Amino acid sequence: MLLALLLLSLFLLVLLGFYVFVGAPHSRTHQTFAAFVACLALWTIKDIALWGFGAGEVSAEWWTSVSFIIALLLQYSLVVFAWVFPENGGVPFKRAAVLFAPGVVLIPATLTGLMWEDVRFSDGRFAIQLAPLAYAFGLYAYGVFAYGFGLLLLKYKRYRGTLWGQQLGAILWALVITGTLNTLANIALPLAGIYTLLPIGSIFVLLGVVIYAYAISNFKLFSLQSALDQFRLFPIAYKVALSIAVVAVVSFLLLQIPIVWWSFGPGTTARAWQRYLVFSVITALAPNLLLVALVIRIISRPLRRLTEAAVAVTGGAYGTQVAFRSNDEVGLLAASFNELSRKMADDIERLRTLNEHLVRTEKLAAAGTLAAGVAHEVNNPLASISSLIQILQARHAVATVSASMGGVAGGGHGESPHEQDAETREMLRLISTQIARITQVLRDMMDFARARPPLRAPLDIAHVIEASVRLASFDKAFKRLRLTTDLEASAPPISADADQLQQVFLNLLLNARDAMLDGGEITVRTRYSARAGELTAEICDTGTGIAPEHRAHVFDPFFTTKTAGTGTGLGLAVCYGIVTAHGGRIEVTPNDERGTCVRVTLPAGLHSGPDFNSNSDFDSGPNSATHAPARVALGSSINHQ
């Protein structure tokens, strides 16, 4: 029974020491506690050796010497612990050298037997007669204990009312309890000739160790949350230690005991030792190989996967994920790596998109400057040419009337004047038509180059779209299309420039018309997202669509897939500039069935301007009619496939 209690005490000591040490192996507090537990484990082992298997005076002398030395080492570890806990501070080496100097004399004196005059263990009874030096040894050991206790008491007074103060208070109570019990079992009663409690002195120490571990672990050692945390995060050190312990115990039970039984069954002979050594080495291979496999599975394989993923990311495969989950440090590292890789891929994608926006903005700025210069340089001579054409047309009209009157009076020969007049009029008309086209292109370029901030006012985007649809319906080709609207009535008003947004939606409607020369369907819908605080308007057609290789360039100025003479490639560039100036974004995506969807997303809510009037600036009338021709002309130049 006593042997079982000592073995259980030893097991619990090692388990607690390992638990606390692995929790923070680089902490001086945890390192000192591990050293303290190691001394207690040695104390328990020597008790097992004597009280479980001891026999003879030599065993008693050995046990006594080790007891004196370990008792002194325990006091040293207590003082070191008092120095470093709870601040995790350093050890004052000069003070430690002075305080621990007597141990240089006392430990050799203990090893040479100067601490007792007689010690024996016979017939299950232990007896000792101490020498005077042993009392000096005891006074010194208790002095070291009192010094460490005093340091902890001073720190407790300093940190009273804090978590550190609570930890120090628990440790002080543990010292009082274990100090009292061990003094009673190992000193007071043996001096009185009573050795009954001496074999279980190490069990008394276990109570103090539990309290120490409980306090060092911030009072979470036996809490349910701490158990759940350990279940969620099971350190590699625990896994390796558990694997080694399980393999060792199982191999001992399944292999070593049968080999010992088979080898020494007939007797302890040289042949028996030979059998035992040979087969114990052979059977040790299996558990060792199993341990290697477990270590590789626990550490090597996940690290290899992490390394391969890291090399892939280094090679540019951003977003690479490690298909590995575990509740240890490697699993946490893998999860952190996956999150880092994903965020890196997202950041790089955002940077790429931002770079594209910056490049597009630079193109727009350069194109605007170029357009303004070209329009200014071409418009003046073009106006002169137009004026000359008009003069020629007027003169030719007068000359034609005169020639007609002269021809009636006197007749004539050769080519008919009417045929000459018709040919001349046709040539002048063609010239005027081409000049009008050039003028329209220049007007588009000037509109593109002209930068003015939006005149924001509260407005209902549904009314803007309805007004744009009414203007587009004046076009004959647009009337042939089927139009479906789905405008969300509960959408809040937005702060925007009504004229500019009307220009955007009218351009997009006419752009959809140009993509469906043989007829088709246009769907206009709006959606409001309260969570994102955005209002989205979507115009989808069932036209020819946009090729994937062209989709990234549709907002570039002067990019168009239309036939020559039918567009300038400025329409979507103008829409892009207007929408981004409003703090929104415009996107072109393929339609689910066929064709193209253009999605305009704008921030919802009112930021400035007068009170909202849902009918302002959107009533049909002279103002709308005035803008309609210009809008239709600009819309015809939008680039579309």
Keywords:
alpha+beta, Helix Hairpins, single chain, Rhopdopsin 7-helix transmembrane proteins, 4 domains, elongated, five-stranded mixed β-sheet, disordered C terminus, 19 helices, 66% helix, 641 residues
What is the gist of this entry?
With 641 residues, the chain is an alpha+beta fold.
Helices and strands, with pairings:
Layout: H1 2-23, H2 28-53, H3 57-84, H4 93-100, H5 103-111, E1 116-122, E2 125-130, H6 132-158, H7 163-191, H8 201-216, H9 224-232, H10 236-264, H11 270-314, H12 329-410, H13 417-449, E3 457-459, H14 461-472, H15 476-479, E4 482-486, E5 494-496, H16 498-514, E6 521-529, E7 534-541, H17 548-551, H18 571-581, E8 585-590, E9 596-603, H19 622-635
Parallel strand pairs: 4-6
Antiparallel strand pairs: 1-2, 3-5, 6-7, 7-9, 8-9
Characterization of the model:
There is one protein chain. By secondary structure, the chain is an alpha+beta fold. It folds into four domains: 2-230, Rhodopsin 7-helix transmembrane proteins (Rhopdopsin 7-helix transmembrane proteins), CATH 1.20.1070; 233-314, no CATH class; 330-403 and 418-448, Signal transduction histidine kinase, dimerisation/phosphotransfer (DHp) domain (Helix Hairpins, Orthogonal Bundle), CATH 1.10.287; 452-635, Histidine kinase-like ATPase, C-terminal domain (Heat Shock Protein 90). It has 19 helices and nine strands. The strands form three sheets. It has a five-stranded mixed β-sheet.
